[in-house]
Amino acid sequence: MRPDHLEPAGSSSSPTGDLEEALLSVDVLRAGRIIRESSAASTPISCIETLVVPVLEKIGKDWEEGRVALSQIYMSGRVCEDVIDTMLPAGSPDRMPHPKMAIAVLEDHHTLGKRIVLALLRAGGYEVTDYGSGVTVDGLVESTVRDLVEILLISTLMLPAALRAKEAIARIKEAMPETRVIVGGAPFRFDPDLWRESGADAVGHSASDTLAAVRAMTEAA
C-alpha cells in the first residue's frame, strides 16, 4: 500500500523542480507564485504546456511507481486547476475549447478517478464538460451526440459497467464516427485487451496516461 503522504525528494533550482516540490508539499501559495511568474515571463498557454503539464505528468508517473501518494496527485491537480482558473477563467479565448471534450463515470458513483483526471485536464488548459457519475448508456449517448463531443472520456469501476461501455461506444460512433473515446478504470487494468474489445480509441491506466492520450489526440486533430 502507498502511504497517505510522501515527502518531496528535496529542494531543486529549476521552475519544474520548484513547482513539483511545492505541489507535493501542498504549498498552495508557493505553487501559485511559481505558475504566475512563469506565465508573466511568457504566456498562460506556454506556461501550461512547458511547466504545469510536464510537472503533473511526472507526479502522475511517480504515483504509478509508488513514489508519491494518491492524495498528492489529486491535490496537485486541484491546486494547478485553481491557479489556472484564475489565469484562464472558463470561457477564456486562451483556453483550448477544441476538440470538444466530456467525461463521465458510467453506471457507478465512485468519482475519485474522474475528479483527478478532470483536475489535470483543466489544469492543462482544456475545457471539459463533466457529465457526472452514475450516467446510463442512454444518457451518455444522448449527451455526447447532443453536445457534438469530439473526445469522450469514460470511467468505470466494475466489469459490468466496462462491458456496457462497448454498447455506448458503438452507438456513439454510429452517430458520430469521428468521436474519439478514451476509457479507464479497474476493469481495463485487469484485462489489457478489454479497451480494444470495447471499441475505444485509447485507454488511460492513470491520470497521466489519460492526459497524454488527450494531448496526442488534440495534436492530431
Structure description:
57% of the residues lie in helices and 12% in strands. It is α/β, with parallel strands linked by helices and 221 residues long. The protein has 2 domains: 15-87, Methyltransferase, Methionine Synthase (B12-binding Domains), Chain A, domain 1 (Orthogonal Bundle), CATH 1.10.1240.10; 96-220, Cobalamin-binding domain (Rossmann fold). Helix 5 crosses helix 10 (207-220) and helix 6 runs parallel beside helix 7 (159-175). It starts with 14 loop residues before the first helix and ends with a helix. Mean pLDDT is 86; it is low at 7-11.
Q: Could you provide a short overview of the structure?
A:
This protein has helices spanning 15-24, 28-41, 44-64, 70-87, 112-123, 137-146, 159-175, 186-190, 194-197, 207-220, and strands at residues 96-105, 126-130, 151-155, 180-184, 202-203. The protein has 221 residues and is an alpha/beta fold.
